Amino acid sequence: MPDSKRFLHPDAIARISRLELRARYIVEGFLSGMHRSPYFGQSIEFRQHREYVAGDELRHVDWKVWARQDRLYIKQFEEDTNMRCSLLVDVSNSMTYGNGPLNKYEYACTAAASLAYLILRQNDAVGCLAFDDRVRQVVPVRSKRTHLQSIVDSLSVATPADKTNMKGILRNTAEKFPQRGLMVLFSDLLCEREDLIKGLRLLRQRGHDVLVFHVMDDDEIDFPFSGSMRFEGLETDAFVNCNPRSLREGYLEALQEFLDDTRHGCAKNGVDYALVRTSDPLDAVLAQFLSRRMGIQRKH
Amino acid sequence: MQFLHQPLTWAFFLVLLPLLIHLINMMRQKKVQWAAMEFLLKSYKKHRRWVWLKQLLLLLLRMVAVATLVAMLAKLVTKDEWTSFFSGRATHHYVLLDDSVSMADRSGNTEVFDVALQALSQITARAAQQSTPQKLTLIRFSQASKSVNQTAVEAMDLADLNAETITGSFEELLQNKGSSLHVSDLAMGPEAAVGLAESLIADAVDEKRILHVISDFRQPSASDLQQTKDALGRLENEGTEVRFVRCAQQRRANLALTELAPAAGTQAAGVPFFVNVKVKNLGEQTVPQVLVRIKTVTYAKGPDGSESPPQTDQLPDILINQLEPNQTALRQVQVAFPAPGQHVIEASLPPDALEADNRIWNVIDIPEGAPVLIVDSDLDQTGAYYLESVFRPGLRTNTGIMPTSQPVEFLRDASADELAKFDSIYLVNIASLDEKSMENLNRYVSNGGGLGIFLGPDVNANAYSRWYDDGRGAFPLPLATDKELPLQTSGEPDVQFQDHPIFQVLLGERNPFARTIAVQRYFAPPLRWQPKEGSTVQVAARLRNGDPLVVEQRLGDGRVVAFLTTVNPEWNNWAREPSFVVVMLQMQSYLAAPLRDIAARYAGSPIQLQLPTDEFAQEVRFVPPQDTSVGATAEIKVQAEMADNSPLMNVRLGIAGDSNQRSGETDMRGVYTMEAIQLDGGEIRQRFALNVDHQESELALASDADIRAALAPLSPAILDADKLIYEDVADAGFSWTRILLFALLAFLLGEQWLAYSASYHPPRSVAATAGGLR
What we know:
heterodimer; A: about 300 residues; alpha/beta; Rossmann fold; 2 domains; two-stranded antiparallel ribbon; 10 strands; B: about 775 residues; alpha+beta; Immunoglobulin-like; 5 domains; six-stranded mixed sheet; about 30% strand
C-alpha cells in the first residue's frame, strides 16, 4: 500500500472526528496518490489563453507566458458542470452495526462526504439525501464549494433509526431530483429485495445513472462468531439463541443468495453495484466512483 | 450388577454436569444486536431441527461418557443375575490357609502370613458385597494335618470357620468364633487341607464352590502340590473353581540351623564329647561372618534325687567366615556335662527372614558311663585285659566306658533286657556259642546293640560259620580255617585299612601307625568269599594278601564288627601298638552309635514313651516350651494309657485319644519337659526337643510354571495376593472395566465427531473464519 493510501484506511479515518475533515483528508490523500491519473484531466480541461482584464483572478494568470512575452494572459479551463450527483445514504438502524473502527453508518457517511468533496472539487453539482423508512435529510444538488458543509451537516444531523423503506425512498428521490444525474446509494440493502430492485428500476427509468455501494460489515460477510450467542434484530423483534457456528453455513448460503439476487437485479436494470466492506480503505469507494463517472462520460 | 467401589457410585451424579454446563452456557450467552437477521433466521429455520438433534445427542453422549467413566472407576461387575434371582444359589468359599513355618517369612514388620490374612479379608469383603448368599469355610494347613481319615465330620471339626454365612468382615467372623490365626511351627503341604475340603465339598449340594488355596508356594511345596493333583482334578470336574493365591513375592536370604547332634564318641558324665552344628545358607547370596551361639543347660540332680535349678552356660561362639549359597557348614563344639542326666544344648543364629529356623535344641542323655560287656573264654582273661586297659586306662583318664566281664554262659542265660543294658558286647576268643546264645546276641544286635568279635586259637570255625547262617546271623562271614600270613617280602604293611569310620583316623598316606602292625595268624573265609551283593557286610580292613581282617555287618538296628585275629598279642602285635587304643575307642563309639541315634523330632510330632505301671502315677505332666514366640503356655496333664496284661503304660503327648489324630499339643518348637510322679513320692523328668523341620527353611519360590507343571493338566488360576488386595481382581463376577474403557473411548470419539459436526470445535484460525463472501 502506498504511503498516501495508508492514511485512507478506516482505522486511520476513524481517528478524525469531523466528517468534513475526514472528507478532505480522504480526497486530498486520494488525489495526491493519483496526480498522474487520467481522471484528473477528466474533471478540469485547459481550453485557451486570453488577455488579462481587470477583475480576473490573479491565480489564473499564466506566469510562464508572461515571462516569455511580457504580457499577461489568463488560462481558461472548460469546466465540467454537466454532472449532477445525488448521494443517498441509508441511516436506518441496521446501519449502526459494526465491529470495526467504523460502523456501516459511519463508513457510509464518510464515503458519501468524501465523494461530495471530490465532486465539488471537480466543479460538479452534488446533493444528499439521508433516509430510513422515510427521508430524514435532503440537501439539494449544488456545485458551490461551500455546499460540502451543508451535505456534511445533513449527514451528521441524521441519526440512525427505524427500518429501511427502500421502495418509497427511491420513488421519493426520483421525485425530489427530477433532473437526470448520478444517483449514488450507500446502504446495507437490508430491506425487501423486490422493493429495492423496483426502486432502482424506477430511478433508471427516470434517466438516472445509479451506483450502489452495498456497505457491509466484515462480521456480516464472514460470520465468524462462536460460542453460545443470542442474536437480536436491530430492525426487528426477532432473536435467535444458537451456536453460531452451527448456523454459519446456512447463513452464508442465504447471504450469498441475497448478494447474487442483488447483483443480478442491479445488472439487469443497468445499475452499477459494488460491495464494500467497512474494513476496506475508503479510496476504494472514490476509485469506484471515478471509474463509474469515466464510464458515464465515455457513454455520453 | 454391582460396583466394587461402592463409594464411587455417588459420582454418578456427575452425569448432570454436562447438562448443568449447557444450562450455564445458555445463561451466559453473549448478546449481539444483529442487522442481517434475515439470513440468520433463514439458516436457523432450515437447520433448526438438525442442530437441536445434534445438540441433544451431544448432551446425551457427554452424559453417557461421564456415566461410563464413573462405572469404570467404580468397577462395575455383573454376574448371572437371572440365575441367582431364580435359584438364589449360594457361593461357598473354601479357603485353605497355609500356616506352615515358611509363612513366617518376614520383611520389615510384615510376615507373608499377614499378607495371606489380608488376602483372606479381601476375599471375604468381596463376598460380602454379593447379592447372593455367601459362605466361608476356612481350614488351616496345620489344622488339616490333624486329620486321620479326612472325613467330612473331621473337616467340620477341624475347620476354623465352617460354612459361616458372610455378613460382615473376615475379622468379625473370626471374632465371633473366638479364633485367632498365627503361623505354626509345623512343616506341611496342602494335601491334607485339600482332602478335607474335598470331603466337605462332596457333601455340599446346590452351591457354587470356589476353592482358594492361600500359600507362599515355595519350591518344596510345588512337589507337595503334585500329591494334591488328583484331588484338585476331581474338585474341578465337580465344578469347583480352584484359585491359588500367592502371598510371597520374593525370595529372601535365610540361614538355617539344620542339625545339632552329638558326634560319634562316648557320652558320659564328665567326658568331653563333640556336638555337630550344621548351618545351611538357603539364600542366593554368600553370607560372611556367620556367628552361631551355643549354650548348654545342665540339669543336675541333688543329693536327694531331685533336680537342681538348671545351670545355663554360654559356650564360645562359632564363627563361620563365609557361607556360600546352598552350602552347609559343619562345625563341632566340645561339650562336657559334669553330671549324668538329660541336658539341653541350644544353638542360635542372628535374626533373618525366617526366625523359626534360627534356633535349634537337642536333649543329650548323659549316663554315668557307657556299660560294656566283655566275654573272654580264656581262664586268664588276657584278651579282656587288653580291652579293659583301653576302656578304663586309669583313674586320671575317664573314657566314660564301664567294662564288665562275664563268662560265656551269661550270654545264654541273660534276658534281652539284661543284655540291652550294655552299649556293646565284646566276644574274645570264644570257641563256639550255643544256639541260645547266638539267638540272644542276634536279637541284641537287631535291637540296636553293638557287637565286637575277636577270634583266636580256641575258635571253632564251623561254629562261627553256623552262626553266620548264610547272612542271617550276627556273624558277618563264614570262616574256613585259621591261616598263617606269609612273611613279608615287599615291605607292604600287613594291614590295609579301608574307608571305614573305625579306621578313619589311620587313613592317609605315610601313616606310620599302620606300618608297625604285624599280623602272623588269622582266620580266613572260604576261598573267593566276597560280601553278598545287597548285604550290609563290608570289609573294613584287609591283610596284604587280600584276605579280610576286619569285617562289619549291620543287623537290624545294630552293628557287628568282627576282627579275624586275636585281640591280645598272640597272633599279632597290634595290642602293643598305640593305634590299638584309638581303634578300640573308635570301635566302641561306632558300635554304640545306634543307641544314641535318636531320630530328630519335629514340631507337631507326638512324644511317646512307656512307664512302668507299678512305679509311676497315671497322671503325667508336660511343660511345653516357655520361650517361643507364641509365649508361655500352661502345662498339659496327660493320663497314661494302661494296657491289658502289660507292666508298662503308654504316655502320649500330641495324639488325641485312640484315633491317632494329632492333637496339636506338640505343635510348638522347643524343649518339652515331662514330669512323672513316682509312687514312692519321687519325681523323674524327661526332656524332648522338638525343632522346626528345616525343609521349611527353603524360601525359593515356585514359579507359576512350576506350579502348573506340578499340576498338569490342571491349570488353576494363580493370583498374586497383592493384586487381590490392591488391584481388585473381579472375582465377584464379570468385570466390565475393559469393555467400559473401550465404550468410553468410543463415546469420546463420537462426542468429538458430533461436536465437530455441530461446530462446537473452536475455529482453526482467524484466517479460516474470515473466508466468507465477497
